[in-house]
Amino acid sequence: MTTKVVIIGGGPGGYESALVAAQLGADVTVVDRDGIGGACVLTDCVPSKTMIATSVRMSYVTDAAKLGINVGDEPEIDKDIVGIDLKTVNARVKRLAQAQSADTSARLIKEGVEIVAGEGRLVDPHIVAVGDRRIRADVVLITTGAHPRELPTAKPDGERILTWRQLYDLEALPENLIVVGSGVTGAEFANAYQALGSDVTLVSSRDHVLPTQDADAAEVLEGVFRRRGMTVLGNSRAESVSRSGDGVVVKLADGRTVEGSHCLMTVGMIPNTDNIGLEEIGVRLDKGGFVQVDRVSRTSTPGVYAAGDCTGVNMLASVAAMQGRIAMWHALGEAVAPLKLSTVASTVFTNPELAAVGVSEADVRSGRVDARVVNLPLDTNPRAKMHGTKDGFVKLICRQHTGIVLGGVIVGPRASELILAVSVAVQQRLTVDDLAHTFAVYPSLSGSVTEAARSLMQASPE
């Protein structure tokens, strides 16, 4: 008998799990409100990284003179000369997001997945309502995502006070952008808009940017931000944001005010778990409204699973997708390994990028993990020198006695790609000797990964 799977939400947790379930022979329906790909593809990850890619290209242009490349008769290239047509940039951002959504939708349909447009609601652990339609299910997966948190004293208006999902409707580059929140999202957008030509002020409630990231990496990035002209206000909690004529005023908790043309609020996420029948069927939520799940994505209600941002478990698209796959493998009787967060690789898409996986140096310094650490600056790497790259490093962490790779941090160009080697080592429990004896292209940035491994090799006892 064919298993009927109904998935509420078409983001990475939804469409990736649908593909797995279809591959395993299930009858799969995806109920989606906003478009396949969800917020990740349509308003969050894909659009933001497209915008950031544009800003990195802008940096290439403005830094070109340092490599001996001049445009016209100008000895130096600046942003005022180059200029940004934000309307064109945003049109491309939206177009690529829609194209990715369409490609993903076409893939689902090709694999035999039914897509139902609308809002799904559980009226029973095995019945999903979409309007007047009732869809019976043997297995239900909740992947409804989350939305930007709003402060009552800083209500977004879509014009001057914005969430990151509203940025792509702007027709002109913000002259003076204030970014409230110095976590991953705030740092990425502050960096991108500064590169595009905005004067940016980053308001951080902590003493430095990216407080949840590796301390050395955060220090490098904050230094880059400041050197490029960004104003970073540490230990400065925003109390309110209000309109003032054609601009905004951000009031800080200590009484200071910051004025700008626009304000971007990046102060967290709220799960999309209201009014979809979860608590009525016995699905437990935590105090923040996130669905509580175990390591194979089961909720407290038999037959009902959950994945992605609505669970609050490491809110990354890659984690959502893996949670969804694990849910389907488990529900459909396949062998499955529980989710292991210690092997999750993550990236901050600033310029330079910051990527990390596994154990942190803070874990080592606190004594929680017995390990050795090496940190190699990128400015000694020949490929980095060729590109004029001076900011960044490769940090590798291995177990004290066995040399098993436990984690790593990379700050530099394409760190999101470079981290894969370290991620594979962590996942497969490779040793620094394994990495050290692996060929790396010369010259390459990846050569710093093998060099770091060689630095951690221990001499054999005589």
Describe the protein's architecture and organization:
It is an enzyme of class 1 (oxidoreductase). This protein is of the alpha/beta class. It has 3 domains: about 5-150 and about 270-330, FAD/NAD(P)-binding domain (3-Layer(bba) Sandwich), CATH 3.50.50.60; about 160-265, FAD/NAD(P)-binding domain; about 350-455, Enolase-like, domain 1 (2-Layer Sandwich), CATH 3.30.390.30. The protein is built from 13 helices and 23 strands. The chain has helices at about 10-25, 40, 45-60, 80, 85-110, 185-195, 215-225, 315-330, 360-365, 380-385, 415-430, 430-435, 445-455; strands at about 5-10, 25-30, 115, 120-125, 125-130, 135, 140, 145-150, 160, 175-180, 200-205, 230-235, 240-245, 245-250, 255-260, 260-265, 270, 305, 345-350, 355-360, 370-375, 395-400, 405-410. The strands form 6 sheets. A 5-stranded parallel beta sheet has the order 3-2-1-7-18, covered by helices on one side. Strand 14 (about 245-250) and strand 15 (about 255-260) form a beta hairpin. Helix 3 (about 45-60) crosses helix 5 (about 85-110). The longest helix is centred in the N-terminal third of the chain and has 25 residues, at about 85-110. The model has no long low-confidence stretch (mean pLDDT about 95).
What portion of residues is helical? Answer: 25-40%
Assign the CATH superfamily of the largest domain. FAD/NAD(P)-binding domain
In CATH terms, what is the architecture of the largest domain?
3-Layer(bba) Sandwich
Major β-sheet profile: 5 strands, parallel
Q: Give the strand tally.
A: 23
Poorly predicted residue ranges: none
Net shape: globular
The CATH topology of the largest domain is: FAD/NAD(P)-binding domain
Strand content: 15-25%
Question: What count of structural domains?
Answer: 3
